[in-house]
Description:
- With 342 residues, the protein is of the alpha/beta class.
- It is 42% helix and 20% strand.
- It has helices at 32-36, 43-65, 84-101, 110-116, 167-178, 184-192, 217-229, 237-266, 281-293, 310-322; strands at 2-7, 12-19, 22-30, 74-80, 105-109, 120-121, 126-127, 135-140, 145-152, 155-161, 270-274, 297-300.
Amino acid sequence: MTLLAIETSCDETSVAVVQDGGVLANVVASQVKLHKEYGGVVPELASREHLRNIHAVAHEAMRRAGVKPQDVEYLASTQGPGLPSALMIGFQAAQTMAFVLGKPFYGINHHEAHLYSPWIKGTPPRACFEEFRPSVSLIVSGGHTILAHVRAEQEHVVLGSTVDDAAGECFDKIAKLIGLPYPGGPCLDRLAANGNSSAHLFPRPLMQVASDDFSFSGLKTAVRYFLRDHPDVLESASGIRDLCASAQAAIVDVLVTKTLRAARRLGVGCVTASGGVTCNRLLRTKLENECCEHGLELRLANQEYCTDNAGMVGILAERKILRNVPATELSVEINPYWALDD
């Protein structure tokens, strides 16, 4: 089975070739430099860049995989959620290829692809679903923070999600308050590595609440007011590092505490984490330590599959094909607000 997948839900143009459980190629064209001067993703610019890049990215993915268009047996693309104008570029490109080649097409939920990305392992990357176990899964990115109970492969229920800002959005907005360049989250992570996380005590919203939902807008506001009252903190490199470390600790404490509490409550033996924020070093370390302490298996998505990529889209589409899930009609449109539990 040879499948070509496309991902354009936000600001990465990605095309992957998946064959029999292996990712033969996973090419990603990032738009970070384009959006840097605006301090965030501009949807119109993202869409134009997808249009500019998608042909070259697809060509490169097929070149690396050693396949030609006529070798492709299935097409897949992210159908939602995401930026409408960005989603449309990849979705229509994949539908067009499916129509021209006369091959089945699969529209994929972006969150669901993230949900199963921790099961892509190895070099070269392969889907390891023979190792699959029921789990509590954390999906944490710039736009979403979701906690799900995965009972079986492709059988999951959402336990909770953010009621306001996502964790990644909180990272980026705090970084912007501090004056760090875009993208702020990774920059804050680097500075926090040499800071004192106990220097400032910031709130841990909803951490002690039994609900599995998240809230990070209050933390962002707390940092804003702290900087208003203590502007001198930004006058020294050590002050900035300590502030980054303290804010990061608050976000990570909430994510880890709620994830582990849900895993213990549901009696699962495995925890997974995926999404762009899973690249954060403190989050990965704390999850590893806590899972080890509580005797839980931890599966973290490899960093190349944490951020948006077509490899995870293709792997999920292939699993759906193997489970005889019907193909998506070519007349179907994008679904920018497609919830994971819909």
